Amino acid sequence: MSRSNAPCRHLLAALATAFLTAHAASAPGNPSAADAVPDPVALGRSVASFCANCHGAAGISKYPDVPNLAGQNPAYLLRQVDAFASGKRQSEFMNGLMKVLSSAERQGLAAYYATLNVVPTNTHPGPGVAEGARAFAKICARCHGDDALGDDEHPRLAGQQAEYLRINMQRYYRPTKVRFYAPMTAAMSQLGQDNMEAVVQYLSSLNTH
Ligand code: HEC
Ligand code: HEC
Predict the structure, then answer these.
(1) Residue 140 in contact with ligand 2 by CB distance below 6 A
(2) Superfamily covering domain 129-205
(3) Ligand closest to the CA atom of residue 204
């Protein structure tokens, strides 16, 4: 985490508390809400108004270490929400937030975010974009897709927040309990620490739909 994230972390913690309070007051135990069977995208859109505090109104995050959710593959997104809820993936902000969501809300959120377009926030990438593209094509494309759009098994990376990519690539490179996936550790070792930033610049500025 960079130094500039310190005030941001206080804000995120406050937002997390606000989310839990508001969710407890609105969703569970409210018979009329439980009886209705809204369309998943509409349900997802309504719950996503809380997520927007951190992940942005149209799923484009306001914070460099918080991921965009717009355009993310719904199957991948749902798996991550479940992984946060079970504690398999660890995040001081996300673990508590995801536990309170019902299964219908989780599916609705995944369906809703998949309908939104990604607009990369890195519009002035640093040097190394061409090298990053070459390394990506060689090592990563076989799983994440030629245009980094992902599929049901693999996250979309195109247009993702630069700092979020950096943090998670480092997490796989030197695995801890925070997030673990052995094939990603192998890919990061093959890429090497010195080439990571070029790939971050390439992916975070990649404007594909
Ligand atoms: C308090 C701020 C905050 C709120 C509110 C919040 N998130 Fe998050 N979210 C984060 C942070 C920080 C991360 C990155 C965690 C990490 O580094 O692993 C994250 C990560 C995620 C991821 C992982 C994405 C990926 O590419 O792997 C998903 C999915 C997600 N959040 C969904 C949601 C949903 C759905 C909501 C609303 C119900 C929500 N979040 C509300 C802060 C928040
Ligand atoms: C063998 C297939 C495979 C290869 C090769 C691979 N990845 Fe991944 N990657 C995955 C899977 C699967 C996940 C999701 C794992 C999880 O749930 O934690 C992932 C997750 C990620 C994430 C986290 C995304 C998010 O939204 O949180 C990043 C960043 C990433 N990969 C970057 C790369 C880069 C860069 C390369 C090439 C140097 C690469 N990957 C190569 C399969 C692969």
Answers:
(1) yes
(2) Cytochrome c-like domain (1.10.760.10)
(3) 2
pLDDT in tens, 5-23: 444 566 677 777 777 777 7
22 and 50 Cβ atoms separated by less than 8 Å: yes
Other C-beta atoms closer than 10 Å to the C-beta of 42 total: 11
* pTM, two decimal places: 0.90
Taking the C-alpha atoms of 115, 208, 56 and 102 in order, what is their torsion angle to the nearest 10 degrees? 40
Ligand 1 nearest-atom number relative to CA 16 = 1
Between the CA of 19 and the centroid of ligand 2 the distance, in Å, is 29
Q: How many angstroms is it from 65 CA to the middle of ligand 2?
A: 17
Select the more confidently predicted residue: 7 or 152. 152
Tokens, residue 87: 């504690």
| 28, pLDDT greater than 80 | no
How confident is residue 37, by pLDDT bands cut at 50, 70 and 90? Answer: low
The superfamily in CATH containing domain 5-114 is: Cytochrome c-like domain (1.10.760.10)
Q: Which ligand is nearest to the CA of 27?
A: 1
